[in-house]
Design a protein that fits this description.
Blueprint lengths: L1 H11 L18 E5 L3 H15 L5 E4 L20 E5 L4 E5 L5 H7 L5 E5 L8 E5 L4 H6 L7 E6 L8 H6 L8 E3 L3 H14 L4 E6 L21 H9 L6 E5 L12 E4 L7 H11 L4 E6 L7 H9 L7 E5 L6 E8 L3 H10 L5 H6 L3 E4 L13 H17 L1
Parallel strand pairs: 1-5, 1-6, 2-5, 6-7, 7-8, 9-10, 9-12, 10-11, 13-15
Antiparallel strand pairs: 3-4, 12-14, 13-14
Length: 395
């Protein structure tokens, strides 16, 4: 009898919290292994593509050394150092002595937009296949790696796709097919793929604060005919795929059922925890995060933010008209900011502005700085009331 009870418990018990995992491959969300040609050809093609794409996207390249001789360990690693960092004139160099598994690789490549990989040495979740007669046998050996072929390239010595590729890739005849020197069309393919992969924007209205300085819930203030948290959510709907009101778990029952709510799962961290909670829920989406205490915020300010969004940055934010720092609570946070936010938290920081100041962000100057005015105290509330009354009177 006891044995049966133990078995029932073990079947129902879940050891780990079920989390939504980002759509990573080996290195990144957007990665392509180029396979089917000599390494020098792959490296040349990757170089041409990176030259063409780097104006719009942060690109990375992955390869393996081709020196068959025993390589000497560089610098102080030869003396037993585990890590060596060198600040070069035009770039920075970081040498590791340890192994890299997929977890470390994803962390290292988190802030780039796309990764091109020598598929002769590394696998990716998507592939570009080069049809080269002198690598036919090598490509055939890697046939099991061709799980998601997205483009086929022909070299000068080939005119047709190999039969074993036709047998392995069921949709091969519908894939883009170019000559390997047709850099213009190959580049256009990658640009189209990146545009398609651009994360959708969700909205997050921050309404989970305790409003201690104000003395009452700022999210419940009626500035525009409804509670401010709902007014802000309605403002975001035109710009976002979905809009959520961020709240504490004990507040969730208070939120109108006509609005989506998202309770904090990173508690005790204020807005920082709300942003992390949003990414935990949907890690592959961008989040337009906005505080509920911005009564002068309007559609024009949001439109300007969205129109000037740079998805290649960690975030797109307004520069504060008060202190010239980024405004973290009227910001589009890209998916690549999620591991960065966690990293800052692990180092003991829970200030979203500090993350923006120390990261690659796109800063915008507001065409209407007054729209960024937030209200934290009774005096500020009265000033904004007068501004709104004057605005209504002028209309």
């Amino acid at each position: 009898m006891k044995k049966q009870e133990v078995n029932v418990i073990s079947k129902e018990h879940s050891k780990h919290t079920k989390l939504i995992r980002p759509a990573f491959g080996t290195f990144n969300r957007n990665e392509w292994a180029i396979v089917g040609a000599p390494c020098t050809v792959i490296k040349l093609l990757a170089g041409q593509l990176i030259t063409a794409l780097s104006a719009d996207y942060k690109c990375a390249y992955v390869d393996t050394t081709h020196n068959d001789d025993i390589m000497l360990t560089p610098g102080r690693l030869a003396n037993g150092a585990a890590l060596e960092y060198t600040d070069q004139i035009n770039y920075r160099q970081l040498n590791y002595a340890g192994e890299f598994n997929s977890f470390k690789l994803r962390d290292a490549f988190a802030e780039v937009d796309l990764v091109l990989v020598n598929g002769n040495h590394h696998q990716c979740k998507a592939q570009v296949v080069i049809i080269s007669e002198n690598k036919r046998a090598s490509l055939q050996k890697r046939i099991d790696q061709l799980t998601n072929v997205q483009m086929i390239l022909l070299t000068d010595n080939t005119d047709e796709v190999f039969d074993f590729i036709k047998d392995t890739v069921p949709n091969w005849q519908h894939l883009p097919l170019y000559r390997i020197d047709d850099i213009e069309n190959i580049t256009a393919f990658f640009k189209a793929q990146m545009q398609e992969a651009k994360p959708v924007i969700n909205g997050l209205v921050l309404a989970g604060g305790k409003s201690q300085r104000m003395g009452f819930d700022k999210g419940a203030v009626n500035w525009h005919g409804k509670e401010q948290r709902y007014h802000m959510a309605d403002l975001l709907k035109s710009f976002c795929n979905e809009v959520f009101i961020s709240c504490r778990a004990d507040q969730q029952q208070e939120i109108d059922s006509d609005y989506l709510s998202l309770p904090d799962t990173f508690t005790g961290l204020g807005p920082y925890g709300a942003i992390l909670s949003a990414f935990r829920e949907k890690p592959d989406n961008a989040w337009l995060v906005i505080a509920c205490d911005l009564p002068l915020m309007d559609e024009n300010a949001l439109q300007y933010l969205v129109d000037n969004r740079n998805a290649s940055s960690v975030a797109t934010a307004y520069q504060s008209p008060v202190n010239e720092f980024p405004e973290p609570l009227i910001t589009i946070w890209e998916p690549k900011s999620y591991p960065l936010l966690l990293s800052f938290l692990a180092q003991g920081y829970s200030c979203p502005r500090k993350v923006l100041i120390n990261s690659d962000v796109t800063l915008l100057h507001s065409e209407n700085p007054g729209a960024l005015t937030n209200v934290n105290t009774i005096d500020e509330l009265e000033r904004v009331k007068r501004t709104l009354h004057q605005k209504l009177a002028a209309e």
